[in-house]
């Protein structure tokens, strides 16, 4: 007869959304008498990704931030500018430091347990959830799943899916060839070939930087496409003698699909699996922090997880943006260039953080190319599919 271990809350996956949510649970002090289990298939302790975000003033993760910047570069084929980000600072956190910091905090709490076990399935009853791994069986009040699967979006057309997909190289040069004073937010001054493509650069010093080649597009490409683009970009900047000391690769879903519709009374999907990614940009860190706080604020043993919904006007704005790029994937450069030509960077960042007033949002709309967005809006109003022409 199998032994069943009990925990109040179980999390499948130990990535960003899980760690932020558990951190909020500990911070609230309302779960000090509860037992929390995090199940991971493999241990997360390396720099497998870099998370970036912007905020004004001092922040919670300043102590582990790898770097921050007050200025950013934006470039397109016919336009380049360096902008002040005030009142924001653009900050970046490397995943290894993030994992280590929060895991140490959880270990000290005495209520969080980590186990390296591969999740297989779960069964929900009126009173809770039974979770099975390859080796064990657990019972819990609430289950949170952060593992993303694309099946539910692949067979529908109402909510198109783009991917923010990329490969990044962290390089080290022998000579001081890198300007560390400004990050490159988006550099579209490279062949677009019918897609939205840009280079993203985080300079850590005058000899170290992350160079990341990124797409916003429906299809993921072969690895050599990214690496060839990074090599060409470095060559154009006369950076020839360098060492690649770390790499990162990812594919982040960009969609306004209501992932939360699959939540049940005792089971909720979080992170990208729950629609926590900012659909119009693929930025995850700030969006996940806000949603983790909202979740924990409402969480208790009898809370019905079907009540978790993330519909608001920004969700609809993102829906239209994804519709535009899904139908005309080459328009990304034009859209972002229009914003940076006409508006202060602080307003753009405030809008992307979903903190603007509607009067400020009108300035954003007016700066964007009108025809593709009006077309996307009209197609939504009459119920037409956003499939590409």
Automatic annotation (TrEMBL):
Name this polypeptide is given: Lycopene cyclase
């Amino acid at each position: 007869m199998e032994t069943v271990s009990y925990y109040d809350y179980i999390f499948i996956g130990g990535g960003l959304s899980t760690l932020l949510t558990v951190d909020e649970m500990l911070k609230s002090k309302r779960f000090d008498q509860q037992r929390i289990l995090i199940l991971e298939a493999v241990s997360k302790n390396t720099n497998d990704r870099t998370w970036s975000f912007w905020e004004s003033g001092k922040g919670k993760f300043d102590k582990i931030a790898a770097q921050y910047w007050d200025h950013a570069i934006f470039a397109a084929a016919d336009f380049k500018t360096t902008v002040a980000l005030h009142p924001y600072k653009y900050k970046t956190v490397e995943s290894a430091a993030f994992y280590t910091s929060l895991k140490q905090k959880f270990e000290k709490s005495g209520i969080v347990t980590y186990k390296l076990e591969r999740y297989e399935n779960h069964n929900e009853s009126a009173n809770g959830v039974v979770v099975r791994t390859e080796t064990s069986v657990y019972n819990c009040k609430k289950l949170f799943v952060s593992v993303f699967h694309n099946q539910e979006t692949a067979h529908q057309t109402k909510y198109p899916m783009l991917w923010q997909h990329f490969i990044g190289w962290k390089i080290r040069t022998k000579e001081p060839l890198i300007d560390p004073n400004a990050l490159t937010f988006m550099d579209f001054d490279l062949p677009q070939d019918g897609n939205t493509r840009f280079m993203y650069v985080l300079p850590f010093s005058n000899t170290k930087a992350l160079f990341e080649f990124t797409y916003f597009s429906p299809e993921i490409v072969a690895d050599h496409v990214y690496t060839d683009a990074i090599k060409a970009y470095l060559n154009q900047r006369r950076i020839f003698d360098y060492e690649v000391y770390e790499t990162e690769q990812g594919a982040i879903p960009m969609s306004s699909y209501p992932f939360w519709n699959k939540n049940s009374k005792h089971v909720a999907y979080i992170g990208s699996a729950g629609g926590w990614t900012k659909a119009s940009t693929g930025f995850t860190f700030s969006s996940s922090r806000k949603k983790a706080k909202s979740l924990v604020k409402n969480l208790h043993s009898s809370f019905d997880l079907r009540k978790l919904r993330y519909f608001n006007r920004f969700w609809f704005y993102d829906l239209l943006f994804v519709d535009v790029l899904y139908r005309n994937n080459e328009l990304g450069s034009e859209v972002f260039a229009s914003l940076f030509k006409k508006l202060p960077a602080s307003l753009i960042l405030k809008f992307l953080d979903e903190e603007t007033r509607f009067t400020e949002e009108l300035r954003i709309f007016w700066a964007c190319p009108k025809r593709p967005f009006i077309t996307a809006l009209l197609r939504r109003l009459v119920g037409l599919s956003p499939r590409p022409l």
